[in-house]
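BUG: 3D viewer hangs when loading the predicted structure for this chain

Environment: internal workstation, default settings.
Expected: structure renders.
Actual: progress bar stalls at 90%.

Input used:
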Amino acid sequence: MQLQLKHRTIVDVLIGLASQTRTGARFVRRNGTAEFYPYRDILASAQAAAVGLQKRGIKPGDRVALILPTSKGFLDAFLGCQLAGAVPAALYPPVRLGKLDEYFTRTRQMLTKIGARLLITDARVRKLLGPVASGVECLEAAIDVMDLDGDGAEWRLPEVQPDDPAFLQFSSGSTREPKAVIMTHRSLTANLEMMASAFRSIPDANPEHGGVCWLPLYHDMGLVGCMLSGVYYPATVTYIPPEDFIVQPSIWLKTISRYKGIISPAPHFAYRLCYSKIRDEELEGVDLSSWRLALNGAEPIEIEGMRLFQERFSKWGFQPQAMTPVYGLAEAGLAVTFSDLAAPPLITEFDREKLATCSTAVPGAGRELPSVGKRLPGLDVEIRDANNQTMADNLVGKIVIRGASITPGFFNDPELTEAAIQDGWLDTGDLGFFHEENLYIAGRAKDLIIIRGRNYAPQEIEDLLFDVPGLRTGCMVAVSAPVGSDGEQLILLAEKDLRVPVPEADLAAAIGDRILAGLSLKPYLVQILEPGTLPRTSSGKFRRADALRMFLAGELVPPEKVTALKLFVELGKSQIAWGRFHLRKE
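C-alpha cells produced before the viewer hung:
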C-alpha cells in the first residue's frame, strides 16, 4: 500500500497546532492533580524556546542534547529545537545512583558521539551532571530549560528539508558503544502517518481522550509513540512521570480510567508489574473499558504474563482485544507491525524440537509465541537467510525491513550504517518468521544460544523463571560461553530478591531444576547476584553480552549503596566539575 505523506517536515506539523485548543498535553502528579496545556500554547512555548536557542547561536543542523524529566519543559525544549532547525537528542537522566560512574562514562560517550554544542537540563538534574559536562570537549554550554526564552522576540521559520535530521535517537540495544539513529523529517513523518492510519481505524475515538503515557520521553516508544504521535494526530496525551509509575503502578490504570484514555503503550514488564503489585483496593471505581489499544512491545512478550493481566483486569473492564502485541525499533522510526486491533492476541504453539534443531516453525507442542501482526502501510518486511536470500514462510531467519520510515543510518558511524543497511534494506538484528501471513519474533540474532546443535532464544529460558521464589522478577539473563572441550554451555546470571530470603545454593538449584524440566537443558552454571548488579540499557533492558563479558572478567559487581553521605559527596564532586567546565569555557 502506497503511503501518502501529509507533511514535508515535523516543523510543518507543529505549525498546524496553532488552532488546537481542545487537545494538548496533560501532566499528572502522584497526588492526582494535573495541568493541561492546549497544543496552541505548547506551540507558543516551543517557538519561544526556538528563539532562545537562535539567540544563543544555535543554527540549523546543530546538535542539542536534552537531559530532562517528563515535563512541559521537555516538550518546550525538544519541539523548540526542531522549530529552530536544530537536531535534538534526548538522553536519559541519572536514575541508577549506585552506578553513577558508569552513567557518566556512557553519557559523555553519547554527547561526544553527536558533537553536542548545547546541553539543556533542569535545576534538579543539573546537580549531578558536572562530571558529564566537564569531560566533553564539544559542549559549549549547559543551560536550564527555564532560561530558554525568546524574551518576546519573533520566531523565524528555519530552512529545513525533508531529508534533514529531525532528531537523533540513541538505540536502546545492548551494545557497549552508543548508537545514534538518525531520524529525518521524512522518515519521522512517515512513521507517524503509518501509526496514525492504524489509530484512525478505531471507531468513535475522541482525540480529546487520546493516550496515556508513563514511558520515558528519551525512549522511542515514549517519544515517537506517545509525544510526537499526539502532536501529529493531534490528540491529547496525558503524561505520568516514569518514576511515579514504578513506585505506584496503579497510577497508570487510574489515569486511563479518569481521562478515558484510548491508547496506552508499554513494554511487557509493565503489564507483569501491574499484575503483581497492584492491590484490588487501589482500583476502587476504576473503569478500563475506554482502553482500546494496550500496545505491548519494545521487549519480548511473555505469554503467561499477558494472559494474567487480561484475566485479572477484566474485572475493571479491560477487554481482551485491547491487548495488542506490536513490533518496532528505533531504526524504523518506531513501529513496523501491529497485530489485529479488533481481536485478542493471536498465540500459536509451535513444535519446540523443530524450532530448536532446524529453525522451522510447525504448529505443535512446545513453544508458544505471540503474533506481532502484519506490516504497517509503507513498509516491506522479509525474512532472509545468512546469504541474504528471501526465505519461505515458516522458516526462521533474520528480519529485514524497507520503507519510507527507515533511518538513513547512524550518526558519525559510516561502518555501522553500511553493515546494517544494504540496498535500502535494514537488518533489524532480530530473528523471526511468517506463519499464515503474521510475523512472529524468535529472538535476537546476537543473543541466540546454540548448544549441541540446538537453538535457544534467551527469552524462552528466562521466561521459565518468572515465578521462582527468591528470584527478582524478570532480573536474570541466559547467556552461553565455551567451556573447554565441552563447547558452548549455558550460564544463568540471576539477581536474588532480598524480600524473599532463600539460600543461594537452594535458589541456584531451583533455577537449574526449572530449566531442566522445561527444556531438558542443564545449566553449566547458575550465578546468584545482588540486586541491581546486571547492566542495563537506558530503557531498562539487560545488556546480555556486557553481563557475560563482565562476569568472565570478574567485573560484575553490585551497585554501590546509596547513602545520604554518598549523595552529598557526589553533589560536591559535581559542583567542582561544573566549576572546571565554566573555567574551560571562559
